[in-house]
UniProtKB/TrEMBL annotation:
<dbReference type="InterPro" id="IPR053714">
    <property type="entry name" value="Iso_Racemase_Enz_sf"/>
</dbReference>
<comment type="similarity">
    <text>Belongs to the HyuE racemase family.</text>
</comment>
<dbReference type="GO" id="GO:0047661">
    <property type="term" value="F:amino-acid racemase activity"/>
</dbReference>
<protein>
    <recommendedName>
        <fullName>Hydantoin racemase</fullName>
    </recommendedName>
</protein>
<dbReference type="Pfam" id="PF01177">
    <property type="entry name" value="Asp_Glu_race"/>
</dbReference>
<dbReference type="InterPro" id="IPR015942">
    <property type="entry name" value="Asp/Glu/hydantoin_racemase"/>
</dbReference>
């Protein structure tokens, strides 16, 4: 089984992080599935992390189309599932309409797990501008009552950038402890990392609790969930391509023509 995991970061900018993701996949899936981690094109930004870009909904429009189009590449390359590995789930609805393989997303999967187990979750992040997008997604999922609130780390960008260099998470974990404790006082029963980077850093450090609350390992969860959905589809437990408006498939040559005409920059998959 093959899973395509699409990220907002650029492969090669953070060698420690690039090494950590495959280790995480191996720990979660062992030999049951192969996960390919794919980042954004090198030319998208010059920084170490995309924090100054994902905070703009205007730019997220382009990311959303890119994430959706990558799902088509994944399906045509023979992948069994596609993961949108970033908290605001860019391009999720579009990707699900474009392909028949299961499409799973970081935010939706984590929030839904908390609701399934009757837990109120709090979000701890480092990019405050994402709160608006995450809140909209939570409301769309019907989970507003399950969300206890948001806390964003003072100086969080510097903490995360420093940790991506070598995985030193002490200062980041301490800041997340304080933020999680505040959310616990507001009724949170578990913590969802507000972005994929701190999630990966906590997992690599073996930290599964902050502020006295369990942390949902969103990256691990979405990989496991993608595997489960793909396996269930193979066994005919469900089908993603029933005959409905959003899942009805036009011929590939038509989709290729639409892509050349309408996609940002044009071109084929």
């Amino acid at each position: 089984m093959k899973i395509w995991f699409q990220k907002h970061t650029i492969i090669g900018r953070n060698p420690w992080l690039d090494e950590t993701y495959p280790k995480h996949a191996q720990a979660m899936l062992e030999d049951r599935a192969e996960v390919t981690f794919v980042g954004l094109p090198d030319a998208v930004y010059d920084d170490q992390i995309p924090a100054d870009y994902v905070r703009f909904g205007q730019i997220e429009v382009f990311f959303s189309w890119y994430f959706a189009s990558q799902a088509v590449k994944a399906e045509r390359a023979g992948y069994d599932a596609y993961v949108i590995g970033t908290s605001q789930d860019p391009g999720l609805a579009m990707a699900r309409s474009l392909v028949s393989i299961p499409v799973l997303a970081y935010g939706e999967t984590a929030f839904s797990l908390a609701r399934t187990h009757g837990l109120r979750f709090g979000v701890v992040g480092f990019i405050p501008e994402l709160q608006e997008a995450l809140t909209a997604n939570i409301r769309r999922l019907g989970l507003a009552e399950s969300c206890a609130g948001f806390e964003y780390l003072p100086g969080g960008r510097d903490l995360v950038t420093a940790a991506t260099r070598d995985g030193s998470t002490g200062a980041l974990a301490a800041a997340m402890d304080e933020a999680a404790a505040a959310l616990r006082a507001q009724g949170a029963q578990c913590i969802v990392p507000g972005e994929g980077l701190p999630n990966e850093m906590l997992w690599a450090a073996g930290i599964h609790e902050v502020g006295g609350l369990p942390v949902i390992d969103c990256d691990g969860l979405v990989m496991l969930t993608a595997e489960m959905h793909a396996r269930a589809r193979r066994l005919h437990v469900w089908a993603a391509d029933d005959d409905s408006y959003d899942t009805r498939r036009a011929p590939d040559d038509v989709i290729d023509r639409m892509t050349e005409i309408f996609s940002p920059g044009g071109g084929r998959w």
